[in-house]
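Render this sequence as a predicted structure.
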Amino acid sequence: ETGEYRIHIAYPHIQNLSDSDIQATLNEEFTPDVEDIRSMLIEGQKEAREWALSDPDYIHKSQRRQTFETRFISQTVLSIKFEHFQYLGTEAHETIAAQVANYDLTSGKEILLQDLFKKDSDYIQTLSDISITDLAGRLEYDIGISGGAGPNEDNFTNFVITEDALIIVFEPYQVAPFSEGFQEVQIPYSEIENIIDTNGPLKELL
């Protein structure tokens, strides 16, 4: 922390994995580039000063925070949800974004959404239908649900694997106002077992 910015980043570090090469690769992947973040915040402060020359008191300290939660871990699967918070000097409020890390610990490969389902299944449409029904039933404001949770693969890039359910994470503004924060739709495996690839990453959880 300095007079112009504050950086607070929590990140995971894996230990005792049987494959040391996979462990090292994942730990390198999770370790943030603090110098890059610092440079970005300093540049943000510079731009903020240029925008607020007539009112220097309007400039606030830039901030970057990262938190994470390990949502599931087994001998074969790791699923982590990251939350990123950023504020650059003169914005009305901080920006918030989600990021997930799903890995096959036996191969070190990232688990993609398509890896979970049968190739001939229309899994995006199924996830969209379930998500829209869930969100529409509990959100007070129906703002962008059909678009943000519509049958577009880009809408479902943030997903979390747990022991008994797949969780879709929607970012602020994606399906609801910023004030509603992150939205999560929990889909039990039993509800979608007919389209899950039983030889895929979820095979030990079914």
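Summary. Helices lie at 20-30, 34-51, 123-138, 145-148, 189-192. The radius of gyration is 20 Å.
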